[in-house]
Design brief:
The chain has 12 helices and 20 strands. The chain has 431 residues and is α+β, with helices and mostly antiparallel strands. Among the domains are: 98 residues, Rossmann fold; 69 residues, ATP-grasp fold, A domain (Dna Ligase, domain 1, 2-Layer Sandwich). The mean pLDDT is 95.
C-alpha cells in the first residue's frame, strides 16, 4: 500500500535530545522514506543516525530557518514545550512552511498537556472518567484551603502548567496539602503554578496508552507501563521515568475496550468539537481502578521512557505511518507489533532527580550484547562519551515475557560504567 503521496523520500527534522528522540531517530532511519535526518539538538546517540544541530526546540525562528535552508518536508516534535508554545501554528501561518508535515498538535490541542485545568474541564464536559477535582488561584486561596480540609488524604496537587515533570505533589495530610497549596500559588513552580488543581487520590495500578491520530482516525500503539519513582518498590521522589515494559499483563481486551470507548474516542471527538487540529501522538496516562480506566493525565506527544519499549515493538514503517496523517490515510493502516515483550531500564546520574554532576566518562557500551542502547543525557567531548543529564542511557531488551526482558536489561546495565551510576533493579515488580 502506498501511503505517502508525491514523494518516495524526504528530509526530516526531529526536535528534542532525550531517550525518546534517540528511539525516534533509530526507528525513522529504518524507513526507505527517510532521505536525511536532522536532530535539534540531539545527543551522542542520535548523531549515529543523522546530523545534530545546535538549535533549541523552542527557538521557532531558527527551526524555521533550518527547515527552509535544508528543504525539510517533515517536522517531528519530540518534547511538549514547543507544542504547548504553538510551533504547529507558527508553521501553518508561514506560506513557505505551511505544507511541511508537522507531527504534533496545534497549540489548542496541546492544551491537553499544557494546562491541567483545561484538561480536567475538557474531561468533565465529556464524561471522560477522571478523579474529582477543584482548581484554585491566589484569588481563591481560602476556597482552596477549605476544599483541601474536606478531602481524605492522600491529596494530589498539580501545577496547572508545565513544570518540567515536577509539578505533581502527593501529600499525606490536610495540613501538608494546605501548606503546599500556599507554596505553589506563591510561585514554587513559577508561572506554572499560578493555578493549582487539587485532585482526589485514586487507588489502582497505572498504565500508558498511546495513539497516533490525524484528528479523525486513530490507531492504538503498543500499551506500556512506566516506573516513575527513583526508589525500588516505587518509593522516593518522582523522576522522568526509571524504566518501562510493554505489553502490560493486566490490560486485557475488556479493559482496552473501555479505554477506547470511554476515553480515546470521546477525547478525539472533543478535540474536533473545540476545533483543535491534531496530527500526532496522544499519551493517555491511565489508572486501572477495580477494572475501570480513569485518566490521570494527557500528554500531547510520546512518553519517555515508554517510547523506548513502544517503538521497538512496533513493526510498521514509522515515517510512512506519520506521513499518513497529513494524507488522511491513517484509517488504511494496520498496526503490527512484535509478540515479544520489551523492557527498558534507565541508567541515571548519582543524585538524580535532585542535583547531579555532568561530564562523567561512560564506558562499557561495547560489552552490551542483548540490549538496544538508547542515549538520553549523553554528549561527546573530545571523542569521549560523557554524561550530560539526569537520565543517561536506556537499555531495552526483548523476552518471551517482561521478566525475561527485564533480566536481559539488568545484565546489560552491569556492563555500562560511569561514576555515580544508579538504576532500579525491580522494573515490573508489581505485575
Amino acid at each position: 500500500m502506498q501511503l505517502i503521496k508525491n514523494t518516495t523520500d524526504m528530509k526530516i527534522l526531529l526536535l528534542g535530545g532525550g531517550g525518546r528522540e534517540h528511539t525516534f531517530a533509530w526507528k525513522m532511519t529504518q524507513s526507505p522514506h527517510c532521505e536525511e535526518l536532522f536532530i535539534a539538538p540531539g545527543n551522542a546517540g542520535t548523531a549515529q543516525f543523522g546530523k545534530n544541530v545546535a538549535i533549541s526546540p523552542n527557538d521557532f525562528e531558527s527551526v524555521a530557518k533550518l527547515v527552509k535552508e535544508e528543504g525539510i518536508k517533515m517536522l517531528v516534535v519530540g518534547p511538549e514545550e514547543p507544542l504547548v508554545r504553538g510551533i504547529y501554528d507558527f508553521f501553518k501561518a508561514d506560506d513557505e512552511l505551511k505544507n511541511v508535515r508537522i507531527i504534533g498538535p496545534s497549540q489548542k490541542g496541546a492544551q491537553l498537556e499544557g494546562s491541567k485545568a483545561f484538561a480536567k474541564q475538557f474531561m468533565e464536559e465529556r464524561d471522560i472518567p477522571t478523579a474529582a477535582y477543584g482548581e484554585f488561584t491566589t484569588d481563591t486561596l481560602e476556597e482552596g484551603l477549605e476544599y483541601i480540609a474536606n478531602q481524605e488524604p492522600p491529596i494530589v496537587l498539580k501545577a496547572d502548567g508545565l513544570a518540567a515533570g515536577k509539578g505533581v505533589v502527593i501529600l499525606d495530610s490536610v495540613e501538608e496539602a494546605q501548606k503546599e497549596l500556599r507554596a505553589m500559588l506563591d510561585g514554587k513552580f513559577g508561572e506554572a503554578s499560578n493555578k493549582v488543581v487539587v485532585e482526589e487520590f485514586l487507588t489502582g495500578i497505572e498504565f500508558s496508552v498511546f495513539v497516533i491520530t490525524d484528528g479523525k482516525s486513530y490507531k492504538l500503539l503498543p500499551i506500556a507501563k512506566d516506573y516513575k519513582r527513583i526508589g525500588e518498590g516505587d518509593t522516593g521522589l518522582n523522576t522522568g521515568g526509571m524504566g518501562a515494559i510493554s505489553p502490560v499483563p493486566f490490560v486485557d481486551e475488556k479493559l482496552l475496550s473501555k479505554v477506547e470507548n470511554w476515553i480515546v474516542s470521546p477525547t478525539l471527538t472533543g478535540l474536533r468539537e473545540i476545533d483543535a487540529p491534531y496530527t500526532g501522538f496522544i499519551f493517555f496516562g491511565l489508572i486501572n481502578v477495580d477494572g475501570n480506566p480513569y485518566v490521570i493525565e494527557y500528554n500531547c506527544r510520546m512518553g519517555d521512557p515508554e517510547t523506548e519499549v513502544v517503538f521497538p515493538r512496533l513493526e510498521n514503517d514509522l515515517v510512512e505511518l506519520m506521513a499518513s496523517l497529513d494524507d488522511q490515510k491513517l484509517n488504511e493502516v494496520e498496526i503490527k507489533m512484535k509478540e515479544e515483550s520489551a523492557a527498558a531500564v534507565i541508567l541515571v546520574s548519582g543524585g538524580y532527580p535532585g542535583s547531579y554532576e555532568k561530564g562523567k566518562t561512560i564506558t562499557g557500551l561495547e560489552n552490551v550484547e542483548d540490549s538496544l542502547i538508547l542515549h538520553a543525557g549523553t554528549k561527546m567531548e573530545e571523542e569521549e562519551l560523557q554524561t550530560n543529564g539526569g537520565r543517561v542511557i536506556a537499555l531495552t531488551s526483548f523476552g518471551v515475557n517482561f521478566k525475561e526482558a527485564v533480566a536481559k536489561s539488568l545484565k546489560s546495565a552491569e556492563q555500562v560504567h560511569f561514576e555515580g551510576k544508579y538504576f532500579r533493579k525491580d522494573i515490573g515488580f508489581d505485575l
